[in-house]
What does this fold into?
Amino acid sequence: MTPPDAGGLPPRLIYPHETPDGLGIVGEPWPGIFWLRMPLPMRLNHINLWLLADGDGWTVVDTGLGTPEAKEIWEGIFATGLQGKPITRMIVTHFHPDHVGLAGWLAERWGVTMVATELEWLYGRMIPLEASPERVVNASRFYRENGLSSEVAETVAGRPGSMRAFVSTVPTFFKRISDGDDIEIGGRSWRVIVGQGHSPEHACLFCPEINVMIAGDQVLPRITPNVSVWPGEPEADPLSRFLSSLARIDGMVRSDPLVLPSHGLPFQGLNPRIGYLIAHHDERLAEVEIACEEPKTGADILPLLFRRELDVSQMGIALGEALAHTHLLVAQGRLHKARRDDGAIVFRKL
Ligand SMILES: [Zn+2]
It folds into this structure.
């Protein structure tokens, strides 16, 4: 998932491939690694999946949204794109619907086990609970406390399963990968590098031998990955975890790999891109801190972070982003959090 707002371009990124026209298999950015573009019915209109030659079969990384259109594209690939070989493994980077959406469908279709980190599998398994009445009540309170009107809070909280609608099923069992694991794909070793903040235990895959990194949503070339506080953990500080994950990846991968991101084009320039993302958040954090000279709710900060009109479908993710900033600033002792007489949570500069 991605934020309603987009960051600018940092310097020095190299894009070896043009933007493809179509959907389905659109390229082979490295011999034996095929690039699949799948549609998304939103402003960000595509997701990239990866199909890796793996001995007598294929390993697929991420699955696409659970829509009829995506299934149809998959069917076309099954018919003509697999060189007569089966899909033998399915790795899911994280639980967001554009990544996990067709995991259950593909697992059943090919008899493969979903490979994922434990938290991503668990969060995926929780998606059907999203519309439970007690979750909606909690979410509604969370949005009210953070400054939305009762009416808007109710609507945002009750948006019926924005996630659920796009996920076939998440398999009832999985095979675990963890940070630091080395897994073999097509005779090469790929290191699992876990990032946090965008999702709880997001798996990136890095192959030093060919210097290629499958980055998922942890690092994207054009947009800043969404980092939000959600009603399920109202006091979360995901931005601290996101920024420290980026710093860790920056330190671990210094070989300027070809980065295969889930949105946008394959690129080189991982370290400058990470530097830009960190600087971008530092700037935003400073702006939020200054804005809180006067006590502000999360909702009060939205116009500062999103300089265009937000509709109700973007409100949850946007407010979550605002809170990700204020919560980091609270953790760093730069803002104070208090409760106003009307029950709203406000943040004030210290
Ligand atoms: Zn995501």
